[in-house]
Amino acid sequence: MYQITSRLQPDFEMICGNFKGKDIVSLDQFAVADLDKLFTVTRQMKRIAENNEPSRLLEGLLVGLLFFEPSSRTFSSFAAAVKRLGGQTIEMQNPEAFSSVSKGETFEDTIQVMEAYTNAIVLRHRFSGAAEQAARAANFVPVINAGDGNNEHPTQTLLDMYTLHERFGRLDNLTGLLAGDALNSRTIHSLLRGLSLYENNTMYVLSPRQLQLSRDDFVSLQDRGIRLIEIHREQDIPHDCDFWYWTRVQKERFASAEEYRRAQSEIVVASPALLETYAKKDMILMDPLPRVESVDPAVDADERAVYLRSQIRNGVYTRMALLALVLGRI
């Protein structure tokens, strides 16, 4: 069985305005100017996709989708992004069961084999630090982190931030409510990193005490300049949030079913009544999905709920933009 070295010391390369050939491992690689550039290209990609315009931008290129952990949206949206731009994919889901990994092939060898066949690798893995380890193993092609354990999910955050920017026209001076499994949610971790790049953002984090941010993460994020306020009861939800960001309890991170059930029983569910009581009329409700007893399906009809509308579609557009930039076609 191969090994992943968890929590490697970061040595990834900053974007600094030039995406070409760069590994995309963490939101910490991005500056505000890099996000501005990505969002400009994302708007171009949105036009291509919405108008079903044929594109040859990635023609002749192969992107490897290497997913060691289940995925619906991230896997499908990366595949759609490549094919919308005329590229092709090599797709490997659950390689531990259906590849030479099952025979004992090391993680590094798996990465180097995939890079021999492709122009970029998109990696999803259940272990924190896997994306950075893959980037170190790959000598010739960029690696894009599609989620590594409970660490980060940078491309989800790029689409989330684009969704917020599209709605509010800014990413500073925002008040948000992030709810659910703050301890294990890589999407919460990455979003807080991203929003910390902008001034005067206040984020309320609603979770049971056993699922609150780790103290290291809380202190580290506060030091970046973002204002964090941890709350644990529905009654403490503020009425002035610009957006809500709801997440599920990460069942796969728990040691036992009983431990998971206890945590799940303390989660606040986003319901029509909750929105009626605490939400502004012009806010938006986001969810990285899948939703598992986190958002009541009755909320779907509320126009403020964007998780199955603009948010999920923006995943394709931002990933189209990122791939075009990283592969040097823009």
Notable traits:
five-stranded parallel β-sheet; amino acid binding; 330 residues; 2 domains; Asp/Orn_carbamoylTrfase_sf; 36% helix; alpha/beta; Rossmann fold; four-stranded parallel β-sheet; 9 strands
Describe what this molecule looks like in 3D:
With 330 residues, this protein is of the alpha/beta class. The protein folds into two domains: 27-152 and 313-326, 3-Layer(aba) Sandwich (Rossmann fold), CATH 3.40.50.1370; 156-299, 3-Layer(aba) Sandwich (Rossmann fold), CATH 3.40.50.1370. The chain is built from eleven helices and nine strands. It has helices spanning 32-50, 73-84, 95-98, 107-117, 130-137, 154-168, 186-195, 215-223, 257-264, 272-278, 310-326; strands at residues 62-67, 88-93, 120-125, 143-148, 175-179, 202-206, 227-231, 243-246, 284-286. Helix 6 packs across helix 7. The radius of gyration is 19 Å and the shape is globular. Residues 4-9 have low confidence and may be disordered.
Entry summary:
The protein is an alpha/beta fold. It has helices at 32-50, 73-84, 95-98, 107-117, 130-137, 154-168, 186-195, 215-223, 257-264, 272-278, 310-326; strands at 62-67, 88-93, 120-125, 143-148, 175-179, 202-206, 227-231, 243-246, 284-286.
